[in-house]
Amino acid sequence: xxxxxxxxxxxxxxxxxxxxxxxxxxxxxxxxxxxxxxxxxxxxxxxxxxxxxxxxxxxxxxxxxx
Length: 66
Description:
The protein is built from three helices and no strands. The protein is mostly helical. The relative contact order is 0.07.
């Protein structure tokens, strides 16, 4: 019984959780900025496709530019 009690005490330092810098908003030519650029481009591309599907017009016609 004494063996189990001695092994159960943890004496290690607590480590910080994993940090991925691509999820933070930073400016300049850094990987996180490129990741956000790609994410926002995917949202814009998807919204353009949805506008064309549901309205039956192109995006420029939908906005009245052409």
